Amino acid sequence: MTQTPPNHMTDIQNQYPITSKLITTVKKPSWLLLSLLFTLILILTIQLTTNQPIFPTRPVSNMGHEAMHGLDTCDGLVPKRVFKKSILEYGGVGDGVTSNTAAFMAAMVEMRRYEGRGGAQLNVPEGKWVTGSFNLTSNFTLFLEHGAVIMGSEDPKEWPIIEPLPSYGRGRERLGGRHVSLIHGDGLTNVVITGQNGTIDGRGKMWWDLWWNRTLEHTRGHLVEIMNSRNILISNLTFRNSPFWTIHPVYCSNVVIKDMTILAPLNAPNTDGIDPDSCTNVCIEDCYIESGDDLVAVKSGWDQYGINMARPSSNIIIRRVSGTTPTCSGVGIGSEMSGGISNIQIENLHIRNSAAGIRIKTDKGRGGYIENITITNIRMDGVKVPLRFSRGADDHPDDAWDPKALPRIKGIFITNVVSFNSRKPPMLLGIEGAPFEGICMKNVSLFGLRPTVQWSCEHISGFVNGVLPSACALLQRNASLTCT
């Protein structure tokens, strides 16, 4: 928009009706009012001509744009790349049968040449593109056009074995290494995976069968894993049938995951939706998830390996996420949390037909901490246990875990929660010798429970106000509670 000269009062009245009202109602403005009026016009003009917010916002992503367009959404803008090609130009065949692993690898070799020259974009057109695992590069966009489906190879050899994560010490399911993810990246900057609601399908049934049949030799691969990277955007796609956790950013910063649909059969084992792991500055928003495990799970390493690495997950926003998981929780924190988890904001969720709503999971041997967790504006329908704090999973990487390594949990703020057709009361079970402290609940209503049921509480402390049915005695009633 062209900037309006300050002496054209008629044009100002047309463009800025609020300012116009001030002008027409003040016949003899003072110099102070004129100064205020000029400042207002200047602010409005800057905002309209630059399309940038006037007041600073908290950064989450940093890819050449303001990180957030306000306080309730994260940056989802896709940067322009100087070099663009289609997978067709590398010999790709989208017939749903032909392997395109070599085509994707060849494309990434060329895309890598443009890392420092404005970046590159690989377009995947309509079709079914079978491929094994391939690695991304920096300053790169993978763009799936409408009708494009990337399909994971059903040959396990096309999912090579890589080293275990240092904060886990071994594969999460089996000793030793692990299968690489279908789409993988390590040590990258400025990476985008997006499109026109195209699909990435891991075709995970082969892997689930191995798990069910107890013939799995190595830990299954993720659908997408980005490691040791920063400035990551994943948006506007559908992810299906991941062999294991679906989206796994680990040791990353400035990550935005938004406008995603993530689907897996409800009995598919460990098909978590989004698992930020030892990450900082993460925004997850406007996603729909159906899975056989947690919709979103925040993690930070496993027992002594996570303690030694000490890479926490912090400054994470999870909002406007909906979905269902009959075996697990809408949002889980842990159970691998040994590097520490803090400053997590969870808001505006809709969780239905699930085993748990919000769950904090930990154990002896984990060490670490969970602090400053804010949970607000949550709706649950048909959730078995709306609020759950768990312990004692007896799940450790090896025999070297330390039973004296107790987690610290402090500052859990829960407000404005309503659950319909609840089947069990909250289960809030801390750890002996390491009680969960500073639990604050306000305006929590759980409907559908029998009048005689009682909360299950051990080794916790805190306060409540406006909680129905009445909480356990370990959570004392405080009428002046603000939970802030």
UniProtKB/TrEMBL annotation:
Transmembrane segment boundaries: 31-49
GO molecular function, one term: polygalacturonase activity
InterPro entries linked to this entry: GH28_Enzymes, Glyco_hydro_28, PbH1, Pectin_lyas_fold, Pectin_lyase_fold/virulence
GO BP terms: carbohydrate metabolic process
Pfam families assigned: Glyco_hydro_28
Keywords for the protein's UniProt record, in alphabetical order: Glycosidase, Hydrolase, Lyase, Membrane, Transmembrane, Transmembrane helix
UniProt-listed SUPFAM superfamilies: Pectin lyase-like
Keyword Lyase on entry: yes
Family: Belongs to the glycosyl hydrolase 28 family.
PANTHER family assigned: PECTIN LYASE-LIKE SUPERFAMILY PROTEIN, PECTIN LYASE-RELATED
Protein name (database record): Glycoside hydrolase, family 28, Pectin lyase fold/virulence factor
The species this protein was found in: Artemisia annua (Sweet wormwood)
Record lineage: Eukaryota, Viridiplantae, Streptophyta, Embryophyta, Tracheophyta
